[in-house]
Amino acid sequence: FGGLLNEHRHWTHPVIHETLVDLLMIQQRIHRGIFAVMDGTFAGDGPGPRCMIPHVKNVLLASRDQVAIDAVAARLMGFDPLRDVKCIRLAHELGLGCGDPQEIRIVGDEEAATENWHFVGPYRRMTFAARMQHLIYWGWLKRFLEWSLKTWLAPWAYIASVVYHDTFWYPLFGRKRVREALRSPWGRLFRNFESVEATESGYPDVGPAGGGFVRGLGASLALSLRILWTCLREAPEALFRGKRRCPASTPPRP
């Protein structure tokens, strides 16, 4: 998504499902035979990607069928892939892969594939930012604000996102979730990776839990201001305007 669409990918958010299917068609034309691996050691529930609730699930999925791997992941989370996830249904109907779990053969840990994690998804626990985004792209704010995201005014949305997520949400809510994740076996392995030793069966000892990875409130706020400055400095619209202001160079005369 970000690699192929690059700077203007936010233009496609109102038609995100159709866009993902279009990108899958392009991928299958230029990169045949891609093998996908999905890391489900942690799985996130809720409004993503920043504000999800992490759950340790200890699952790894792999497939050469990009649609099938998403369908199995959706089913594990408790959704009906063909009913609840539009991009999976569209890709399945276009023959880009198999989105029907009944037609997908599971090898490996077949018992894990039957789990249902009963995730609620992104809509029941929406943050303020998520609700505003939905109103802008699909609700009553669309006619008033969406047009600005396709002009040089677009950085207002980047600023709003950084202010909400990095200056408000993470210091007050996100840090607690990060601490809880770091107390899990995977979090402890991440923290102690350089000091623990692996055996033939993996990492029997993942080391102690401890602090040091989660910034304090003051440090988090300071970091959010640096992120905000970077956001403004590197906004695609700002770079584009800067390029237009630069006079065209005159080729040297022979």
The gist of it:
This protein is mostly helical and about 250 residues long.
Keywords:
254 residues; mainly alpha; globular
**Secondary structure: helix percent:** 40-55%
Largest sheet: spatial strand order: 1-2
Indicate the low-confidence ranges by residue numbers. none
> From the helix content, strand content and strand pairing, which structural class follows?
mainly alpha
Individual helix count: 11
Query: For the report, how would you describe the main beta sheet?
Result: 2 strands, antiparallel
What is the 3D form?
globular
Taking all Cα atoms into account, the compactness measure Rg is: 22 Å
Number of domains: 2
What is the terminal-to-terminal distance? 46 Å
Helix-strand string: HHEEHHHHHHHHH
Query: How much of the sequence is in beta strands?
Result: 5-15%
- Please give the number of β-strands: 2
The whole-number mean of residue pLDDT values reads 86
